[in-house]
Amino acid sequence: MSIHDSFPRIESPQGAVVVGVDGSASAERAVRWAARLASARHRPLHLVHALALASLGSSFADAYLDAPAVIDALRAGGRTIVDRASTIAAEEDPELVVSTELSSETPVATLVRLSEVAYQLTLGEPAAAHSIGSTAIAVASHSKCPVVVARGDTRPSRRPVVVGIDGSSVSETATALAFYEASNRRTNLVAVHVCNDFTHGALARHAPVADQDPTRCAILAERLAGWQDKYPDVPVQKYVYLDGPREHLTEWSTRAQLVVVGSRGRGGIRGVAIGSTSNALVLQSHCPVLVVRPQESST
């Protein structure tokens, strides 16, 4: 039996909140965030630790990795991590239905697979603010369901939900999910529209449209009207800026409990799965960020 056969593939419960855990402090904050969400939404919680052994299938090390003692040690280390995560989840809600999984796949492959049936994926923040090829970015790029990167202050608060709106189709999906989140969290929604993707201040001396331009504000209000009719309990504040979507949304994240963005916006390049604004927020947001891919919504 190979080491890969010794880690059976487990499907998470349908509609579960799935969390990738690795024993880090950021992953433990992600577990607390996800446990509170699962409890509030009456969803099961699925905790998964990926050992990234599938890529070793053709390596010279397989002869050693097949040794029972090594396999047992790998299992024991992974089990310690998921058991600790289960304890943390129980601290948030002792009645929460929790399942666990050890996977031989890479973290990205494991989480993308589970996203096929998950309600939402949750990950801890990347270890470095400018990490290239981070798990969070890769998962947000390919997930089949919304992804939360539990950055910054993940504690419950009365701060608003912030959504970035640029007029793209995925932005419309993000808007729907942002209203849903604000309603469920019983808080305000801040709708931020930035007229273009240039760096903040790049057009200040050249463009005729100013921040809070009345015409642009009216267009934004029209775009939101249907959602405000559906969620009359959600107070909405609207902000229009000339440029700098990454800078403005990052600044708003210092005052928000959640920022919601589409994975790609109006400037998305064909073949690129995650845009520069969502990428920047995954790496730099001061609060949890929810990345929505096209045609996805957890409502």
CATH architecture annotation of the largest domain: 3-Layer(aba) Sandwich
CATH class descriptor of the largest domain: Alpha Beta
Largest sheet: 10 strands, mixed
Sketch the topology as an H/E string, one letter per element.
EHEHHEHEHEEHEHEHEHE
Radius of gyration: 20 Å
CATH superfamily of the largest domain: HUPs
The third-level CATH topology of the largest domain is Rossmann fold
Structure report:
Keywords: ATP-binding, Nucleotide-binding. It comes from Antrihabitans stalactiti. The protein has helices spanning 25-41, 62-65, 68-92, 107-114, 135-142, 169-185, 214-230, 245-252, 276-284, and strands at 17-20, 45-50, 98-103, 120-124, 147-150, 161-165, 189-194, 236-241, 258-262, 289-292. It has 299 residues and is α/β, with parallel strands linked by helices. It folds into two domains: 17-150, HUPs (Rossmann fold); 161-292, Rossmann fold (3-Layer(aba) Sandwich). A ten-stranded mixed beta sheet has the order 3-2-1-4-5-10-9-6-7-8, sandwiched between helices. Helix 1 (25-41) crosses helix 3 (68-92), helix 4 packs parallel to helix 5 and helix 8 (245-252) packs parallel to helix 9. The termini are far apart.
How do you describe this structure in short?
The chain is α/β, with parallel strands linked by helices and 299 residues long. The chain folds into two domains: 17-150, HUPs (Rossmann fold); 161-292, Rossmann fold (3-Layer(aba) Sandwich). It has helices at 25-41, 62-65, 68-92, 107-114, 135-142, 169-185, 214-230, 245-252, 276-284, and strands at residues 17-20, 45-50, 98-103, 120-124, 147-150, 161-165, 189-194, 236-241, 258-262, 289-292.
